[in-house]
Amino acid sequence: VGPAGLAIPVAGIKPDDLVDTYTAARAGGARRHDAIDIMAPAGTPVVAGEPGTVEKLFFSDGGGGITAYIRSPDRNWSYYYAHLQDYAPGLKEGQAIKRGQLIGRVGSTGNASTAGPHLHFAINEMSADESWHEGSPINPYPLLAGEQASR
Predict the structure, then answer these.
(1) Which of 25, 28, 56, 141 stands 20 to 30 A from 96 (CA)?
(2) Helical (H) or strand (E) element with 45
(3) Strand, helix or coil for residue 139
(4) Count of CB atoms situated within 10 Å of the CB of 124
């Protein structure tokens, strides 16, 4: 279950390049990852996997660093892009985003290692009244690595 037709949100990455890190342990086993890490050189363009609206631009020093939360037009899904190097010029909250539009660039901000720049990409299933930081995580990997990713 999940949104159909997602684009891989890092330029130049193919389905075979992806690794499913969704259930990987984090914080010494204290929590599950609940996202996938898409490894790419720093500065690689990060694009919207789906259209939506920029719901929140947020900096989390001990977490995702430079992050963007984009909500689907039907408000059922939230897409979380983290560890960005920077945002696309002019990106702002409330802005409508098209599938494939530049959001920012791969980085290693927040708690990411500078030796392994990547996009931390998460999808949360949302109810209409939930805020940008809420929702229930679903695994993005099968949606990006399967047949849907090639559309």
Answers:
(1) 141
(2) strand 45-47
(3) coil
(4) 21
